[in-house]
Amino acid sequence: MIENGLLPSISIMVVDNDESSRLHLNETLTELGYRIFEESDLPSAQNRIEKQKIDLVICNVLMPAAEVVEFLLRIKRRRQQTPVILLTSVIDESTRKELTEAGADAFLTRPFRIGRVEEIIATTLLKYDQAAVDVPKSRKRVLVIDDDPEFREFMLQGLKAIGYDAESRSSGAEGLAAFIDQSFDLVIADYMLSDISGIELLGKLREIRAEVPFVIITGYPLAYPLSSAKADGVDAYLRKPFRINQMEQVITSLLYPEKSRKQL
Fold first, then answer.
1. Structural domains counted in the chain
2. What pTM was computed for the model?
3. What is the pLDDT of residues 198-220, one digit of tens each?
4. CATH code for the domain in which residue 76 is found
5. What is the rounded distance in angstroms from the CA atom of residue 65 to the CA atom of residue 249?
6. Structural domain span for residue 154
7. Strand 165-169 relative to strand 35-39, pairing
């Protein structure tokens, strides 16, 4: 079995000189499943990002504007593939343009909803993952089963970007019907579906075509930990949130094991 997601798979550094703001954002992002690092000033943040792998930076633009611009320029010179989201109140168009030209990838305007935070993070990371993808490797078909429409769209975009044909269904019953009617090379399903658990679905799919790899995804690793997935016989385990390139590694190892071993 492929083990992935033992720790939160996406690390975010929050840079803000306002302690209460940092705490609020830390709590919000931790609730969404991200691994959070906090810094209260730009030099400390710069030092951390040079020494440690960080997937994404969220920085408060209310810190001195000139310092934020220099911070962005330094990040993009040394860590070009590290996206930066700026946390702002209302700013004028010229300031927004200056920050964008310096390397800001997106803006998160206060007050914000949790859903909006998650959406901006996902779309920003997806943009970088798509840019890193080489020529599509195959036209194998993947079935995604998840009752969250935004997550299904994220998965379909990502799978298309890495070269797979993909379809999605919103329930276990719909997924099972699609699996019976069509030919799929791999199935990715959420553990908690609206009508059936992902593991119950796995049992039904294995009765039809036992050789098709099955990847379970979960946003609740305490409710369904890796050890349970091993015992249930799933082929791979991914903990939400994850990046498209991590999903690509999992799929490659299942559909192209020889290719995966050579890469390792």
1. 2
2. 0.70
3. 999 999 999 999 999 999 999 88
4. 3.40.50.2300
5. 39
6. 141-263
7. unpaired
